Amino acid sequence: MKTVHLHGHLGARFGERFSFDVQTPAEAARALCQLPGFRAAIEAGDWHVIRGPLEDGDDLDEEGLTLGLGKTQEIHIMPVVQGAGDVFNVVAGVALFAAGAFTGNAYLMAAGAGMAIGGVVQMTTSPPGVDYNSRQRPDERPSFLFDGPTNTSTQGAPVPIIYGRIRTGSIVISAGLAAEEV
Length: 182
Known about the structure:
Layout: E1 2-6, H1 9-14, E2 17-20, H2 25-32, H3 38-43, E3 47-51, E4 58-60, E5 74-79, H4 86-103, H5 106-124
Parallel strand pairs: 1-5
Antiparallel strand pairs: 1-2, 3-4, 3-5
Helix pairs in contact: 4-5
């Protein structure tokens, strides 16, 4: 029997400890989905799944959920820690500013104004996203160090012996860069 520990609001809503006869964390999650509302709650958030003791267990990624548990007896499901939100910063900043104005404390007013302005800026701007699908691997990026149609400079590539005029890309065998003061 494996013990599944739910932490955070999942533990408060559904119970903190369950025992199942399962082989993988994915099976444990499927067993927990029998609880009414559990599937919707798990899909609505981001979670850490820890295999083993909470202090020194393995934090599993999506592929690790299907790996066997072996002799491991515990699985912990914890919510990912998130910020309080931008509206909270604005409200807290205005409250600090008002408290500073009421007591005559300029430092408290400055801290409140900075917090409120920071909250407004966070609400009006979005963080930059990274499109991992369109990124090139380092060995597929074109090199502009040497001229040629396609530069191949990966470890273990064969080095051709060329006779006559070269009409292929270059193969970098050794490269160096030196800075000199003029």
